[in-house]
Write a structure and sequence with these properties.
The chain is α+β, with helices and mostly antiparallel strands. It folds into two domains: about 50 residues; about 190 residues. It is built from two helices and ten strands. Strands 1-10-3-8-5 form a five-stranded antiparallel β-sheet, with no helix packed on it. A five-stranded antiparallel β-sheet has the order 2-9-4-7-6, with no helix packed on it. Helix 1 packs antiparallel against helix 2. The longest helix is centred in the last third of the chain and has 25 residues. The protein is globular and about 45 Å long. It starts with a helix and ends with a helix.
Length: about 250
């Protein structure tokens, strides 16, 4: 019996500990003025826009990325007065070949972090020019921010072009990803021997105001993790009761 209980204990621990380590599924920072979550994933460069009203004489404009299975192509970012005007974003097309005028942050110390790429990179091209931002942040979010001068009370339009690669073709993605979603839900985040690239979290968010906190939000376990954790705890509880009964 002792040998059996020892085996059950080992099995229970083997279930509980990987399930805790597995849960690398960070959500995005709060406060976005645009979240593509729920919208169709583009299959070619698509323009997205959002308006905001300035509350200060300078505004941090931030773009935050996640693409578990593949990569985003992000290009030609602009901020103009509502209705038109000059572009207040500098190097919005990354044609300097680097992140000049941008500040990069890695929200969750993610892998496959973003960088400036040249046509072609990761099967993606620039929307215009030669260079563009390529981002495959996996199991969490990274981002770019730039501070622009604004007039309090004035309305501005943030615009950018976005393309992506590999939501339908990655070996671990068995169900095509057709809509953006903030978290991975297919049980493929941080599995042993995997790097998270078979997850299905794909999202982009835009912020205007303070730069989103770079303190990682708590990781959100997937449904499968709750089940594994529950089974492990149940087995450990049963082992504890059996040992008490034997000792009595």
């Amino acid at each position: 019996m002792r040998s059996f209980l020892k085996t059950i204990t080992i099995v229970a621990i083997a279930i509980v500990l990987p399930s805790l380590a597995h849960a690398q599924n960070y959500g995005p920072p709060p406060g976005a003025i645009l979240d593509l979550n729920g919208q169709p994933v583009p299959t070619t460069y698509t323009q997205y826009s959002v308006n905001f009203t300035a509350a200060d004489t300078s505004t941090d404009v931030t773009f935050v990325f996640r693409h578990d299975p593949g990569y985003f192509g992000f290009d030609d970012a602009s901020v103009t007065l509502f209705g038109g005007g000059s572009n207040l974003i500098s190097n919005g097309g990354f044609e300097t070949g680097d992140t000049t005028n941008w500040t990069y942050f890695n929200q969750n110390n993610v892998s496959f972090a973003g960088s400036v790429g040249t046509t072609p990179t990761q099967n993606l091209n620039a929307n215009s020019g030669t260079y563009f931002w390529v981002d495959g942040a996996t199991q969490g979010y990274d981002g770019l921010t730039q501070t622009i001068a604004t007039t309090i009370g004035s309305t501005y339009t943030i615009s950018f072009y976005l393309n992506q690669y590999d939501t339908n073709g990655h070996a671990g993605v068995t169900t095509p990803i057709t809509n953006f979603q903030a978290l991975s839900t297919n049980g493929q985040v941080g599995d042993p021997g995997q790097d998270g690239t078979a997850g299905n979290g794909v999202d982009l968010l835009v912020y205007a105001g303070a730069v989103p906190s770079t303190i990682p939000p708590a990781p959100v376990p997937e449904p499968e993790i709750y089940a594994m954790f529950g089974i492990g705890l149940g087995l450990m509880g049963w082992v504890g009761r059996r040992r008490k009964q034997q000792a009595a």
